[in-house]
Amino acid sequence: MTEPNEPRKPDPAVPPLETLDDSQRIPRPRQPAAPRTEPIRTTEDVPPGAIAAFAIVGIIAVLLTLKWGVPKAIDWYHHQDWAWFTQWTATVADPVHAYLTAHTAGLPLTASSAFVIWLGVGAASLTMAWLTGAVGARLTWTAHGVCSVLMVWHASPTAGRPVAAALAVLAWTIGSLFALRGLSLRPRINIHNHNHPAR
Predict the structure, then answer these.
(1) CB atoms within 10 A of CB 142
(2) Is residue 149 a part of any domain in this protein?
(3) Basic and acidic residues compositional bias: what residue ranges (predicted)?
């Protein structure tokens, strides 16, 4: 038995506690992932019977489309009343042209030139935003839509002003399906683990 004032001797069966430095810690080994099946890379991996069946089905589908689908589509197109589309276009474009005519008086820019610029900027920003997804093109498309709705609201007859503005908003949102594709309002959160040892 030891005296109370004497220091305790370490028990040889219990190893001493030591603090390891972060650089000496070894991460737990990763468990191997399940093996992935090899994808089909070339036509040599596809059985010849599958290629022949696919070709036959494709040829039959093309022949049926040419013989039955195209004439039906042409017949349907000729029997449709497309006045709604031209009226919708006029409901949006005519007030814009009237607004530009009324507010370009005294400017070196004519109303016709301003209308062409309005059409060109809209088409170019829609195309660029759709193909590239660039922020500038999307901002230009958004500004073009807001300005168009405001011009339609201002230049439309008072009784039909809400309907004309709503149709302008619908036209802009349909274009935005392409111009703003892939845009998400959810914030992207990146988590960086600074305690993980460098590999």
Answers:
(1) 16
(2) yes
(3) 1-11
- In terms of domains, do 121 and 157 share one? yes
- Residue 128, Cβ neighbours under 10 Å: how many? 17
- Report the candidate in 176, 177, 174, 150 with the shortest Cα–Cα distance to residue 164: 150
Q: In whole angstroms, what is the distance from residue 152 CA to residue 93 CA? A: 8
In a shared domain, residues 58 and 107? no
Is 156 domain-assigned?
yes
Among 96, 103, 101, smallest CA distance to 121 is for 96
Calpha distance 144→153 (Å, rounded): 14
Query: Is there a single domain that holds both residue 91 and residue 70?
Result: no
Strand, coil or helix: what is 73? helix
Token pair for 85: 């589309």
Relative orientation angle of helices 135-155 and 83-103, to the nearest 10 degrees? 90
Indicate the pTM of the whole model. Answer: 0.55
The two three-digit tokens of residue 190, written as one number: 């990146």
Phi, psi torsion values for 31, nearest 5 degrees: -80, 135
Provide the domain limits for residue 120: 83-179
Structural domain tally of the chain?
A: 2
List the structure tokens of 9. Answer: 């001797």
Residue holding tokens 């392409």? 178
| Residues 117-151 pLDDT 10s | 999 999 999 999 989 888 999 999 999 999 999 99
Q: Is residue 93 part of a domain?
A: yes
